[in-house]
Amino acid sequence: MNSIPFFNFYVVLTQVLCYQPVEKRLLLNDPDVIMNELGRLQNTVAILNTTVSQQQLRISQQDAKIAVLEKTVDDGSTYTIWGRKACPASATTLYSGYAAGGNNGHSGSAAESLCLPPDPEFNRTKITDGANHAIIYGAEYWSQHFFSPNGEDVPCSVCHSKSSAVLMIPGRNSCYYGWKPEYYGYLASGHYTDAGASSYICIDINPENLNGGEHAVVGRYFYPVIVQCQPLQCPPYHQNYPLTCVVCSK
Question: What global pTM score does this model have?
Fold first, then answer.
């Protein structure tokens, strides 16, 4: 038996049996490990900083919206109550004055009615250049069945409500869900045969008169508004019924 091949086989076998793979140990003081961990932490911090910045932006936007909403609530809204010398208890009276507007018989009259204050201020003296001007007249009730006796002058008051929205609803004497009534009454406007334009207003259910007023042959007159069927749907409306109205806020 040849001993040399056997010896060589033994050496190889011993080397195979004694071989152990060398694994890299994770050491806390290993520079590669420290750099990898530092990079991972830096990425995490960057992501967190981005998230915080986004949240701060959203909070700022929400704060701005809240400030606008709070200001809107604080500002409230205004409306005019027609036929009364003071506002309801739910509102503050800014001023009480005189209902006024264009002449019902003038084709060029402005459509809207105004509530003139009791303490006017003027910048110039009277105009004397003929017909180059518009005219405003005091307003009077003209239907004793619903308002005061014919010819009585109409008071009005401008009111400030803490509510952010105010709405006049024609044909109702109560508000829809979520709204509260400021006052209710009858819808009024100019006569349907008048040449002058007019607008609809809501006169309080218990109208008052201005002291010292007297009937004038010209001016702005307020008449109750009645239903005319066809093409207006009847029902739910009814021929010749006077329309109610309500001023609501929320």
Answer: 0.69
Looking at residue 224, the DSSP 8-state letter turns out to be E
Domain range summary for the chain, segments of one domain joined by +: 28-75, 76-118+134-249
pLDDT digits (tens, 9 = 90+) for 194-246: 888 889 999 999 999 888 766 666 789 999 999 999 889 999 999 999 999 99
| pLDDT tens column, 65-80 | 887 766 655 578 999 9
Can you tell me the distance from the alpha carbon of 154 to that of 141, in angstroms, rounded to the nearest whole number?
7
d(CA 99, CA 148): 14
Three-class SS state of 10? helix
Task: Pinpoint the alpha helices (H) of the chain.
Answer: 3-18, 31-75
Name the token pair of 159: 């009111």
Please state, in angstroms and as integers, the Cα–Cα distance from residue 138 to each residue in 48, 193, 239, following that order.
69, 20, 31
